[in-house]
């Protein structure tokens, strides 16, 4: 194994944390107070008329101030009269605010009026505003499946958390992949007043698999139809969102709209902003039946209790069966079936103003939904093109989306003051451990690091690999930061087997990595590389924590514990698989040591055999690793013996020994108390020896 550069680079990963303190500006139309119609003096000295400080000057200032107070009060009365007159002429423009509630934008449930002009929803007359109690929990349901959708959910959740002022309960209908990713993410995110429950999407497939669907969302695009059956029976209402949604306002405003539902209205939907359901997009275009333009199901308000009483399950099934006799399949997944049901039962719908679902697909009327940035509530990237969609203001929408995409998620761990949070055992234990540390200790920050919970996003990119059936498979394990990304392509070219990597990145760097990977043919051609993002927090580089994350998600029986700066010899993967059998690693506690070398040259003809490597050692082109800096680190490998050896030989552990090894997957984790540079591998090798793991050195023509 060859190291590209000699020695190591120390670096300090610093995460910049911003403390945002909301500034509240008060406009005082009135100062002072009145008792029995008389002004109460603002001077604190009035009760002390004989005080030496009670001078003629202060008396004049007090009188002047009282005159000004009366003037302001008179102006205030005049202003109130004007407001009363204005409210009498236009009662809809009054907006209230209460210390425990939020004032909300008024929508309209009148479908005909909205069709006459979609923008009317934004400028509609507002009556008494519905409210949401300060600590009322808002329920949100999202269907999510796969690696890419999991990334989208994170951006959606960030936009919701950024604006929210209420406790949130997310109901995630997820496949096994998304559940593993998002469960770990939320567990390590530790956002106060946020609860997450998962529902197995794979168990719901039989409920909708009988419906042929052409939409790119596949079978998961139909699962919103069965939410009344899937979600808890005691859950009365829920906001249902697509994963490609971005919020530009507090979700409590949307939750408040439930209070406007009347009669048999059980669905809150925004009118579809394209001509799809009008059937005039192309010749012979035949969409599913819909009421006018139809409705878009990217944002849905569901009154679950009433839907269950109406036998929603039976209603949509009968409608789907009837329509499929002529339509054969759905084109827009659940949206087609929702619209077919609404066509027959228009009384079910409360039509939301279109700013609650500004649809950014090609050829939509979304521009009529807003006149200003303040009009925007929810942005829906409902085109397969996503950020590449054609829209007059797409640059603004794209920047808004990218803001949340790259926003530091650690800043969203803010408490909701005044709202009691559910007891969390992990959080309580963490706080107890932190409280036991001495903040005056010079090493406080260092000691605190081992208790830091780093937000972790597993399988950031698509991963697909099944371990070899012969139980000899080996995964290369390494960790890296942003300044080592250039090593990824080279490692993938040298190692054809599975790889598990932990990357220590900020949110913005994670998106840079994503763009880098998607632009690389080499990386995109490999689906057996697992990228796990551990987000930056604190001032130390948690090197052993990163190694543990990468190790924990290895799916093969054996691991090659390496560093990102090293390139394996060509063919090493297959050679190690043979050596696993030769050394009987499955039934013995052994570690195979891979000899390491380094070069000072960035352009090097890589040795293809042991003979070539020995020749380069003799010429001084290569060196045994850290020979000039830290000889003790690899001295027990006994390179002199290795030069002539043709079979594996045993070496004994010595102090400061830190070789690169192949071990069984059940080997001990690294000690995460080690951060930054130094002793992190030494301690791990010492523990292996203490647990009676006998070191073996693997040899061969390509080693």
From TrEMBL:
Record InterPro entries: Glyco_trans_8 (IPR002495), Nucleotide-diphossugar_trans (IPR029044), Xyl/GlcA_transferase (IPR051292)
CDD domains in the cross-refs: GT8_LARGE_C
Annotated localization: Golgi apparatus membrane
Residue spans crossing the bilayer: 12-31
Location of region: Disordered: 41-64, 81-108
Entry GO MF terms: glucuronosyltransferase activity; xylosyltransferase activity
Polar residues biased stretches: 44-58
Gene3D superfamilies: Spore Coat Polysaccharide Biosynthesis Protein SpsA, Chain A (3.90.550.10)
Gene Ontology biological process terms in this record: protein O-linked glycosylation via mannose
Superkingdom: Eukaryota
Catalytic activity: 3-O-{beta-D-GlcA-(1->[3)-alpha-D-Xyl-(1->3)-beta-D-GlcA-(1->](n)-4)-beta-D-Xyl-(1->4)-Rib-ol-P-Rib-ol-P-3-beta-D-GalNAc-(1->3)-beta-D-GlcNAc-(1->4)-O-6-P-alpha-D-Man}-L-Thr-[protein] + UDP-alpha-D-xylose = 3-O-{(1->[3)-alpha-D-Xyl-(1->3)-beta-D-GlcA-(1->](n+1)-4)-beta-D-Xyl-(1->4)-Rib-ol-P-Rib-ol-P-3-beta-D-GalNAc-(1->3)-beta-D-GlcNAc-(1->4)-O-6-P-alpha-D-Man}-L-Thr-[protein] + UDP + H(+); 3-O-{(1->[3)-alpha-D-Xyl-(1->3)-beta-D-GlcA-(1->](n)-4)-beta-D-Xyl-(1->4)-Rib-ol-P-Rib-ol-P-3-beta-D-GalNAc-(1->3)-beta-D-GlcNAc-(1->4)-O-6-P-alpha-D-Man}-L-Thr-[protein] + UDP-alpha-D-glucuronate = 3-O-{beta-D-GlcA-(1->[3)-alpha-D-Xyl-(1->3)-beta-D-GlcA-(1->](n)-4)-beta-D-Xyl-(1->4)-Rib-ol-P-Rib-ol-P-3-beta-D-GalNAc-(1->3)-beta-D-GlcNAc-(1->4)-O-6-P-alpha-D-Man}-L-Thr-[protein] + UDP + H(+); 3-O-[beta-D-GlcA-(1->3)-beta-D-Xyl-(1->4)-Rib-ol-P-Rib-ol-P-3-beta-D-GalNAc-(1->3)-beta-D-GlcNAc-(1->4)-(O-6-P-alpha-D-Man)]-Thr-[protein] + UDP-alpha-D-xylose = 3-O-[alpha-D-Xyl-(1->3)-beta-D-GlcA-(1->4)-beta-D-Xyl-(1->4)-Rib-ol-P-Rib-ol-P-3-beta-D-GalNAc-(1->3)-beta-D-GlcNAc-(1->4)-(O-6-P-alpha-D-Man)]-Thr-[protein] + UDP + H(+)
Keywords: Glycoprotein, Golgi apparatus, Membrane, Multifunctional enzyme, Signal-anchor, Transmembrane, Transmembrane helix
One cellular component term from this protein's GO annotations in UniProt: Golgi membrane
Membrane topology value: Single-pass type II membrane protein
Pfam families according to UniProt: Glyco_transf_49, Glyco_transf_8
Family membership: In the C-terminal section; belongs to the glycosyltransferase 49 family. In the N-terminal section; belongs to the glycosyltransferase 8 family.
UniProt xrefs under PANTHER family: GLYCOSYLTRANSFERASE-RELATED, XYLOSYL- AND GLUCURONYLTRANSFERASE LARGE1
Record protein name field: LARGE xylosyl- and glucuronyltransferase 1
Organism encoding this protein: Rhinolophus ferrumequinum
């Amino acid at each position: 194994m060859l190291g590209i550069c000699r020695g190591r680079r120390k670096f300090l990963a610093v995460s910049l944390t911003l403390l945002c303190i909301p500034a509240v500006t008060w406009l005082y139309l009135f100062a002072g107070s009145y008792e029995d119609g008389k002004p109460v003096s603002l001077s604190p000295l009035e009760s002390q008329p004989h005080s030496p400080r009670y001078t003629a000057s202060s008396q004049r200032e007090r009188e002047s101030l009282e005159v000004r107070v009366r003037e302001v009060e008179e102006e205030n009365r005049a202003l109130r009269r004007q407001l009363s007159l204005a409210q009498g002429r236009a009662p809809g423009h009054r907006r209230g605010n209460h210390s425990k509630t939020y004032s909300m934008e008024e929508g309209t449930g009148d479908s005909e009026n909205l069709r006459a002009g979609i923008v009317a929803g934004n400028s509609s007359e507002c009556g008494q505003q519905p409210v949401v109690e300060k600590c009322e929990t808002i329920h949100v349901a999202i269907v999510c499946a796969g690696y890419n959708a999991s990334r989208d959910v994170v951006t959606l959740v960030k936009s919701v958390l950024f604006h929210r002022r209420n406790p949130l309960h997310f109901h995630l209908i997820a496949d096994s992949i998304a559940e593993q990713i998002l469960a770990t993410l939320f567990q390590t995110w530790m956002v106060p007043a946020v609860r997450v429950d998962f529902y197995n999407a794979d168990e719901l497939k039989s409920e909708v698999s009988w419906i042929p669907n052409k939409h790119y969302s596949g079978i998961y695009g139909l699962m919103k139809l069965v939410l009344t059956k899937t979600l808890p029976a005691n859950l009365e209402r829920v906001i249902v969102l697509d994963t490609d949604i971005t919020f530009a306002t507090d979700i409590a405003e949307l939750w408040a709209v439930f209070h406007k539902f009347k009669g048999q209205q059980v669905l809150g939907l925004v009118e579809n902003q394209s001509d799809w359901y009008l059937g005039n997009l192309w010749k012979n275009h035949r969409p599913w039946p819909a009421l006018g333009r139809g409705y878009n199901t990217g944002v849905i308000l569901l009154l679950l209790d009433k839907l269950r009483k109406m036998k929603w399950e039976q209603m949509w099934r009968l409608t789907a069966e009837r329509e499929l006799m002529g339509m054969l399949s759905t084109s827009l997944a659940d949206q087609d079936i929702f619209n077919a049901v609404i066509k027959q039962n228009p009384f079910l719908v409360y039509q939301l103003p279109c700013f609650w679902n500004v649809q950014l697909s090609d050829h939509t009327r979304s521009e009529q939904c807003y006149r200003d940035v303040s009009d925007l509530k929810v942005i829906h990237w409902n085109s397969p093109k996503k950020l590449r969609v054609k829209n007059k203001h797409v640059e603004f929408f794209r920047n808004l989306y990218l803001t949340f995409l790259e926003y530091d998620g650690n800043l969203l761990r803010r408490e909701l003051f005044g709202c009691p949070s559910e007891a969390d055992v992990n959080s309580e234990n963490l706080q107890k451990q932190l409280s036991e540390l001495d903040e005056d200790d010079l090493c406080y920050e260092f000691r605190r690091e081992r208790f830091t919970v780093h937000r972790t996003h597993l399988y950031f990119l698509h991963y697909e690999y099944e371990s070899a059936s012969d139980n000899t498979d080996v995964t290369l394990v390494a960790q890296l930061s942003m300044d080592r990304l250039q090593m990824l392509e080279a490692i993938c070219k040298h190692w054809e087997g599975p790889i598990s990597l932990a990357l220590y990145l900020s949110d913005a760097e994670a998106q840079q990595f994503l763009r880098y990977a998607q632009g690389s043919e080499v990386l995109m051609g490999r689906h057996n590389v697992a990228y796990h993002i551990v987000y930056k927090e604190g001032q130390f580089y948690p090197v052993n924590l990163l190694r543990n994350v990468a190790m924990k998600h290895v799916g093969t029986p054996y691991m090659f514990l390496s560093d990102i700066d090293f390139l394996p010899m060509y063919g090493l993967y297959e050679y190690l698989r043979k050596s696993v059998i030769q050394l009987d690693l499955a039934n013995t506690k052994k570690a195979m040591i891979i000899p390491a070398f380094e070069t000072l040259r960035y352009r090097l003809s890589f040795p293809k055999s042991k003979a070539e490597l020995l020749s380069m050692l003799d010429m001084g082109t290569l060196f045994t690793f850290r020979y000039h800096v830290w000889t003790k680190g690899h001295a027990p490998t006994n390179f002199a013996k290795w030069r002539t050896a043709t079979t594996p030989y045993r070496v004994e552990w010595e102090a400061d020994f830190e070789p690169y090894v192949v071990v069984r997957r059940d080997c001990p984790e690294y000690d995460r108390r080690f951060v930054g540079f130094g002793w992190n591998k030494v301690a791990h090798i010492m523990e292996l020896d203490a647990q009676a793991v006998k070191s073996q050195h693997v040899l061969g023509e390509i080693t």
